[in-house]
Amino acid sequence: MDGAGSLTRSLFRSLRPQADLKAAAVGAVVLLREWLQDKRQERLHAARAAAKIKAKAIVEREPPPRVVALIERYLPRRVGISMTVLLLIGSTGFGIVKGGHLQDFITAVSDARNALANSAGFRITSVVINGRKHLTQDEILAIGGVSGRSSLLFLDADAVRDKLKANPWIADATVLKLYPGQLMIELTERKAFALWQEAGRLSVIADDGAVLEPYVSRRFLSLPLVVGKGAESQARDFLALLARYPQVNSITKAAIFVGERRWNLRLKDGLDIRLPEQDVGNALAMLSKLDKEDRLFSRDIVAVDMRLPDRLVVQLSEDAAKAREELFKDKKKKKAGDAA
Description:
Blueprint: H1 2-61, H2 66-74, H3 79-98, H4 102-122, E1 126-130, H5 137-144, H6 157-165, E2 170-178, E3 182-189, E4 194-198, E5 201-205, E6 211-214, E7 225-227, H7 231-242, H8 246-249, E8 252-258, E9 262-267, E10 272-274, H9 280-294, E11 301-305, E12 313-316, H10 318-339
Parallel strand pairs: 1-3, 4-7, 7-8, 10-11
Antiparallel strand pairs: 2-3, 4-5, 5-6, 8-9, 9-10, 11-12
């Protein structure tokens, strides 16, 4: 028993140094790991602190201007993005205008939206035009700016009406849009009233004096001719007065407005009638009476001057004047012979 106990105590005494070494090794490893973790944490904290200090240093080194700081403080968020977008849009618009492409841009946008509307069922499939006499349907649509690309949805009826009324042949117009695809236009056209000659140019005019077009077609040849500055605006009243005296009107080639005050008549045989500024109707009545009773217009004369209220002056033609002079000479010779 004592022997066994002694053996056991002897064995424990021999193993104790090994256990102490092992425990010391484990303890050293634990201490080393904790030291490394502490160092790692210290480096991490140091890095974070350095980053904060650096960021703070940058902000403090370059503080924003006061105006910018106020704008950032009081303006809503994303205002900068909005302003940038507006600046880009403005720059693009300026480039379009400066480069002379504004009309092309507007046309492209208009064509795009019309194409969308046409594809949605608002294509103009029927056009009804009432009241046209001089202009053709294609001419009317072209004047109004209506083309095959136009859609009824985006067609501006007031703009079409204004364009139509700007044409001298059209006195008034009504434009109606009947959805989904019919366009109706009611026109009141002016009528060709007379030919007006001024400064070497010959034009077709309406009764209100509006110039309809240059004279290029012989179908207007039968219209009365008025000549002179201001004649186009006075022609309706004067020609209406002249029509009351058919004996004069039927042989009149042209009515000439003189000095924007009074009228002369040029007859078809070249005879000039100089009418007074006042009482033109009485002068025309006198002319009709003289021609009816004395065949005035058939005589060998070149002008009749009616400008003086108390007399009528007749200018003979050159041949008639010579013949009259010869006649007077003969009469004088005859009287001299009788006296002898």
